[in-house]
Structure formats: structure tokens, C-alpha cells
Amino acid sequence: MDRDIYDRKTALKRIGNNEKLFDKYLTISLQEIPVSLDKLKQASAVDNLKSIIIHAHSLKTMAATIGACRLRDAALELENAGKSRDIEYAHLLIDRVSHEFEKFYMLAAET
Amino acid sequence: MKNDQNQNIGILIVDDTPAELLLISSQIEEKGYTILTAKSGREAIRILDTSHVDLMMSDYMMPQMNGIELLSRVRKKHDIPFVMITSYGNIDDAMLAVRMGAEDYIVRPCSSDELCLRIERVLEYTRVFRENREYRAHQHSLCSFDNIITRSAEMCKAIFLASKVAKSPATTVAIFGESGTGKELLARAIHCASGCPESRFIGLNCAGIPSGLLESELFGHVKGAFTGADKDRDGKFATAQNGTLLLDEIGDLSFELQAKLLRVIQEREYEKVGSDKKIPTNARIIVTTHRNLEQMVNDGTFREDLFHRINTFPIFLQPLRERKEDIPLLAEYYVKRFGRELGKSVPGISEKAVKFLSEYHWPGNVRELKNCIERAMILSDGDMICPDHLSLIKSLRERSEEHSFGQEKIRICLEFDPAEFSLDTVIRQTLDISLEKCSNNKAQAAKLLKIDRNMFYRRKPAKKISA
């Protein structure tokens, strides 16, 4: 498994190796991240920077908790692009975030 | 592991992300806390109005109302600790939250151990902080003018003056009075009435510190200022910044330091020992002394310019012997106070004991009375304090009598048959009366008459004595 994409071991250790809790959180996150991605795309379509920052932030938080390291980093970059009002770069990053989520989802589904 | 004691502790978690609410709640629940959750700032405020919350944790980034806005709203209405939750890469937000008044912050993702440890620390900090605040408020209330026990007109006047000057922190106040009259108590009352309960009251006994060290104590020193000064140190002026500095026994200050103090009072700035850098001070200065500074000025032992500078607002405290009406009040007060402190239920103090206390001269003033009652309370078995309970009674009587010779007029009336009247019989009768006054103590009687005690061995008793 590529630990840059999915570091389940570290994420699980953080919550005291409570697998039940982790899986519950992962399930909810896998439902919520696509929702956040949709909202990001909608915000990007209308250049709504505030909304981009909020949804990138929330996506980044979930990604960090579930051990989706590359997704987390991409979301952080998106959040920062929003904060620095770089809308062009934000458009590009939304695609990267979607791509990283797909890779993570595939790995998570395998385990 | 669940801790049953924690179930009474309510923690409100605010986050717009359901997954985060679930995770944090689950991590904290393990410690047995009662968890409340809110998905927005508005919902959190509603919960705060209706539920018991001991600690609040909120996400920083939320739509509509962010964590900082929520913190600011909560602070206006509620006195509960606030922990800001920020995310990976947002440490600046955490710093901002702490600057805005949050007790702590958590950066996600964090381990369960770290989360619980931070919560425990914030709860403990809050407990200690509140305890300290309550203690300060209690101390503040004890130091108020209302707590100075007196019905003496002179003392009421002194308190009135002190309450007036309390609102003028730039004015130096001089409190004069014998030892034990309550100079420090009044100084503390002035400090407390100045309306800055958080500011500090710093006392320094100028008589208790060698003059060589006093300058450093007052103004502080820099590293290398003198042998042993291995690091910079603040003095009392720095510690009393925004508060009050009490210089007790100002009359004992050396002439050299008097000049330095005068400059500080005039210029409102000082220099640390070994430094030329001027440091401003806004400390209120209160000086006290039992000495007669005016006399010291005449004797050349106290600077006249400093005397005039500190004598802007003099307050004089009466000795206890000149306000005997306060003795029963104070005695009752101390009986109650030591009753509480010693855990003894004493109904009060007998009339006879009060009479005895009222007749005493109290050279040590209220402090001596306090010590006297404390000792009586320790010796008491829980019944009313009466002269017999006061084991000090004998020494008090002796001291009282001893003192009365020095203070009161001695009247004697001698009667003679014309045939017996002579200088010799007058002397003999005077000796006998003095001896009687001194309970047959020849040494004391000789001292009273300023004669050699052998006079008593040489005398022939007089036939008739009346005094």
C-alpha cells in the first residue's frame, strides 16, 4: 500500500487503535468528502473564494484524520490558494484534490 | 478508562463536520465526560443558555459564524474555558484564538491522549484560576474600609480621608500611628478601594532590611551591579507597577535612600542599581511610620524636602488607649474570628473581662489585643471568655499598673494629728503608700519614688495611712 496515499496505521494509532471508531469515521468521511468536492466545484464555478476556503478546510481535516496524506496536502494547498485569492490556481487544485480522493478511495476500498 | 467523577463535567463540542463531531466525542467520552454537540455557533449559543457546560471546544473554520466570532460572543455572556480546534497547517489560527482569549488550542488530527490531556489541563487551570479569583475577591472584601472596626470619631475621620484619597493614585499617602494601630490595614483598604483588584499590593519594611540591601530591594539591580548580582532582578517598584507600594517605617530609611526616594516620588521614574536606564513607575506610594517625622526633620535625621513631599496627605491613627470605645467591639470581633479559625464555639466575652480589657493601656494597640484574645481563645474550653480564662490577666494587671504610674497623676492624701506631723512622718507615710501601691514590691516602689530601695529597710512604719 502506498502510505503517501493512505497511512491507515498512523491514523489508527492516533485514536488508540480503536478500529471500530476509525471505520465509523472513515465511512462517514467517504460519504462527506464527495459532498465537499461537489461544493468546491460549485464554488469554483462562481469564483466564491470564501466557500472554497471553508470546504477545502473541512476536506483537509477529514483527510488528515483518515490518513489520506496526499489528499490532505492537496486540500491544504487549495485552502491556501483561496486565502491568497489565487482563483486560477484554485481551479487547477480542485482537479488535483478530486484525483487524489479517487486514488485514496480505491486503496481504502481494497482494505 | 472511564472516570465517574468526570460525569458531572459537561463539554460542548462545536463543529460543522459530523465526522469530526463523532470522532472528538468518542475520544472524550472514554474519560467519562458528559458530551454535548453543536453543528454551528448559533446552536452552541442556544445550548449554552440551557445546559450546564464546563468547557467548550470549537472548530475554527465554520460557515456563518467562525470559531473566533463564537469565542467573542461566548465571552460576553459566559465564564467558561474555550479550546479552539484548528486543523493541520493552520497554526496561525490557533495563535490568533489564544490571543483573543481562548484558554488553549488543539491542532487536528491529534491523538486521544493529547486531546484528553489538554482538556484535563484546561479544566485544572480553570479551577485554579477561579479559586485564585475567589480568594482575591475574598481578600479584597476583607481589606475594605467597611471591615475596619471602629466607632471612634477620630478613626472614622481617618477612614473617611483614606476613602477620599483612594481615588487619587498619584498622591502619596502618609499614615502615622503607633505600632499595632492598623496602618497596614488602612493602606490595604486604600489599595483595594482604588478599583484595581487585579493589581498588586507590595509591602516593604524599611526597618527590616539592612540599608545596603534596601536600595536593591526597592529599585532592583542589573547583573554585575555588585558582588553576588549574577543576574538582573526587579525591585519592589517594578513588582508594584499598576498597584500599591507600601513603605513601612519610612522613618528608618537612610539619608542617602531618602534622597533617591524623593526623586522617584517627584519624577515618577527610577533606575535599577548599576544602571542609568530610567524606568517609569505608576505605583501608588503609601508610607507609614510610628516615628515623629517632624521631630526627625528638626533633629536633622529626616530630609525636610522628603517630609513635605510625603506629607501631602497625612492620616493619623489613634492609639487604642485613646479610643477605648473600640475595645469591646474589637474583642467581640476577635472572639468570633478565632472561634471560626480554631473551630471553637465560644458564646462571647464576659462583661468583667471586657471591663478589664478596657482598663488596660494597650501599648501594643490592636495587635496586642488581637494576640491577647487569640491566646484566651486557645485556652478557653468553649465557655464565655472571662478574666479567669485570660491567663494573661496577672501580667496585664502588672503591666497596667506599671504603666499607670508613668501616665496618670498620683494623688495621696495624708492625715496627721498635729502632734505627730513632721517631715519624717510625711516621708514614712509616703513610703508606706508607695509600697502598698506596688503590692509590697520594694524594688518597684523605690523605682516609683526614684530612691534607693534601702530606704524601705530603714523606715519605721507610720501610724496612720490614707491614700
Features:
heterodimer, A: 111 residues, mainly alpha, Four Helix Bundle (Hemerythrin (Met), subunit A), 5 helices, elongated, B: 467 residues, alpha/beta, five-stranded parallel sheet, 19 helices, disordered C terminus
Task: Compute the number of helices of chain A.
Answer: 5
- Assign the structural class of chain B, choosing from mainly alpha, mainly beta, alpha/beta, alpha+beta, or little secondary structure: alpha/beta
Name the CATH class of chain A.
Mainly Alpha
The overall pLDDT average of chain A reads: 92
Assign the CATH topology of chain A: Four Helix Bundle (Hemerythrin (Met), subunit A)
Strand content of chain A: under 5%
Strand order of the largest sheet of chain B: 2-1-3-4-5
Separation of termini of chain A?
A: 9 Å
* Count of beta strands of chain B: 14
Q: Name the overall outline of chain A.
A: elongated
Question: SS-based structural class of chain A?
Answer: mainly alpha
**Helical residue percent band of chain B:** 40-55%
Main beta sheet of chain A, described?
none
CATH second-level architecture of chain A: Up-down Bundle
Number of folding domains of chain A?
1
Specify the number of helices of chain B.
19
What percentage of the residues of chain B does DSSP assign to strands (E)?
A: 5-15%
Any idea what the radius of gyration of chain A is? Answer: 14 Å
User: Which chains make the largest contact?
Assistant: A-B, 25 and 22 residues
Main pleated sheet of chain B: 5 strands, parallel
The backbone outline of chain B, from C-alpha atoms, is: elongated
Q: If you had to describe this structure to a student in words, what would you say it looks like?
A:
The complex is a heterodimer of chains A (111) and B (467). In chain A, α3 packs antiparallel against α4. With 111 residues, chain A is an all-alpha fold. In chain B, strands 2-1-3-4-5 form a five-stranded parallel sheet, with helices on both faces. In chain B, strands 7-10-13-6-14 form a five-stranded parallel sheet. In chain B, α13 packs across α15. Classes of the chains: A mainly alpha (111), B alpha/beta (467). At the A-B interface, α1, α2, α3 and α4 of A face α1 of B.
